[in-house]
Write a structure and sequence with these properties.
Layout (H helix, E strand, L loop, with lengths): L2 H8 L5 H4 L12 E2 L5 E10 L2 H11 L8 E8 L5 H6 L5 E5 H9 L4 E6 L1 E2 L9 E5 L15 E4 L5 H12 L8 E4 L2 H10 L4 E5 L2 H7 L3 E4 L1 H5 L6 E6 H6 L1 H20 L1 H11 L4 H4 L6 E2 L5 H13 L20
Parallel strand pairs: 2-3, 2-4, 8-9, 8-10
Antiparallel strand pairs: 1-2, 4-12, 5-12, 6-13, 7-10, 7-11
Helix pairs in contact: 3-11, 3-12, 11-12
């Protein structure tokens, strides 16, 4: 593992060993009652701002988790890695994260379980929610043109690096020549316009906004690096999962019900986006939506596992079979 990756992960984890005894209570999670006198279990879920947290909040608002006996509070975090310390310290019961962040946490020996999938790609690259966009002046038209260019990503040495380097390698380009610049998604559009970066890996709604500003559509990195890529995951600490199996199952069912509802009626989700995000109604009608389902794609995990070693994010592969608590099949 590179020194940068080590420092990025070890700093927020320094206090974790002293607090592991607080990861879940030996007697299981406390319960309360709702307005109708039904017993519910309160849980906190840290999730990434934007579409991931919007998905979860939509499920909460629509009552899919309450139907499973859960009172879910969504804690919006700045990124996948940021949610891991709170999860391991017992401050939250679940954490939404991207797949690379989950595997990085496991590679550091942190006691986490992947209990559900999160955001996934769609089948059609033209309709996926993530794109590499380039400035008109950059000369970038296709993946091979990324050699030697500076590309903005929201987190260094994470899933975006893996996806971009995979596409470059498959295109016969030198994947080690690309340069990554870390910045928030909202800062990427001005950086493209000013020439501060040559390109950016954007997610919706910033993809649609970039297209409206005339940026060049280069590739859909997630779906083109692997079909049906499982981009997001939900995690619990190993102790919490072991002590609260019924809560884990209820959470998985809530995720599944929310994903199925959006697949059946995406317009209802679009209408709710202005309430659960800062996306306005007009933009919500135009953006491409991800897909969601609870089952964990083991092939995606192993694919990313191998690529993380290949591109130097980890020194060796993680035993992914030991990480996953799969939802029950219908």
């Amino acid at each position: 593992m590179s020194k940068k990756t080590y420092k990025r992960w070890i700093a927020p984890m320094l206090a974790v060993p002293l607090m592991l005894s607080g990861c879940g209570s030996s007697g299981g999670e406390d319960t309360s009652t709702d307005g109708e006198g039904n017993t519910v279990t309160p849980v906190r879920v840290a999730d990434t701002a934007g579409m991931p947290s919007a998905f979860l909040q939509y499920g909460v608002n629509e009552g899919y988790f309450e139907e499973e006996g859960l009172d879910v509070t969504v804690d919006v975090s700045i990124g996948g890695a940021a949610a891991v310390p709170a999860l391991v310290n017992g401050e939250t019961q679940f954490a939404g994260s991207n797949t690379v962040s989950a595997l990085l946490a496991a590679s550091k020996g942190l006691p986490i379980n992947i209990v559900s999938a999160g955001t996934r790609t769609v089948d059609d690259p033209e309709k996926d929610f993530a794109r590499i966009m380039a400035s008109e002046s950059s000369g970038i038209e296709e993946v091979s043109d990324l050699e030697g260019k500076t590309i903005a990503v929201n987190t260094l040495e994470n899933i975006n690096d893996v996806a971009i380097m995979t596409l470059m390698e498959e295109a016969g380009a030198d994947e080690n020549s690309v340069k990554f610049a870390e910045m928030g998604f909202s800062d990427m559009l001005p950086a493209l316009e000013s020439g501060q970066v040559d390109g950016a890996l954007l997610i919706e709604p910033f993809v649609t906004m970039a297209e409206e500003q005339g940026a060049v559509d280069v590739a859909s990195p997630y779906v083109e690096s692997r079909e049906n890529l499982m981009v997001g995951t939900y995690m619990a600490s190993q102790q919490y999962a072991a002590e609260n199996p019924d809560v884990i199952k209820a959470f998985q069912r809530g995720i599944s019900a929310t994903g199925e509802a959006i697949a059946e009626d995406p317009d209802a989700f679009r209408e709710a986006l202005p309430e659960v995000t800062t996306i306005d109604a007009e933009l919500a009608d135009e953006i491409n939506l991800p897909s969601w389902e609870a089952s964990v794609d083991m092939e995606t995990l192993q694919f990313i596992n191998e690529r993380m070693v290949r591109y130097g994010l980890t020194d060796e592969e993680v035993a992914v079979d030991d990480l996953v608590t799969q939802p029950e099949s219908d």
